[in-house]
Design goal:
- The protein is about 45% helix and about 25% strand.
- The chain has seven helices and four strands; from the N terminus they run αααααββββαα.
- It has a four-stranded antiparallel β-sheet with strand order 1-2-3-4.
- α1 crosses α6.
- The longest helix has 23 residues.
Length: about 170
């Protein structure tokens, strides 16, 4: 019974994930008005600062993608190869459950200049519905995006483990 409740909640969350972005996340994605005047002391310090900045941006973009307040067009732009999933994202945007979904990022590990590992939880109405998930983010066209593999994994969960009705892009990503 708990599994059924979790799957129902997950289904609503995935719908919501495909539907929104928080205003706070959008507002915080801009740059600071006071530029830093401290130069890194070493190349390692510069790499650490770049990695920290990338990790922070991954978290902001990830939360935005899963927020119910994010317009569908913005969500499409925050998903790797998002145009291939635009129809799914737009179709799920009208879901009532989708309006309650959000994500909380607990850790981002930048693996390379174009990829990162993300530890996150999906929330429904502020309550954890899918905890301690592992995902990937990719840097594509100047933006950190939710990786197709992560999104497709959530779609598989929503479809009770079935991959039969998934978009072709998910079948390539798996």
């Amino acid at each position: 019974m708990i599994a059924r409740v979790c799957l129902r909640a997950l289904s609503g969350i995935v719908l919501a994930c495909v539907v929104g972005v928080t205003a706070a996340a959008c507002g915080s994605s801009g740059s600071s008005s006071s530029p830093s005047t401290t130069a890194p002391a070493t190349p390692a310090a510069a790499t650490t600062q770049a990695s920290s900045a990338a990790a922070a941006q991954v978290a902001v973009d990830w939360v935005a993608f899963f927020s119910a307040k994010t317009p569908a067009a913005k969500r499409v732009s925050l998903l790797q190869d998002g145009s291939q999933f635009a129809a799914i994202i737009k179709a799920q945007a009208g879901s009532g459950l989708a309006a309650q979904a959000s994500a909380k990022v607990s850790k981002v590990t930048v693996v390379s200049p174009t990829s990162a590992r993300v530890s996150y939880s999906i929330l429904e109405g502020g309550q954890p519905a899918l905890q301690n998930q592992s995902g990937v983010a990719v840097y594509q066209n100047g933006t950190w995006k939710v990786g197709v593999a992560s999104f497709c994994g959530l779609l598989v969960l929503e479809n009770n483990g079935s991959t039969a009705s998934l978009p072709a892009a998910c079948k390539v990503a798996s």
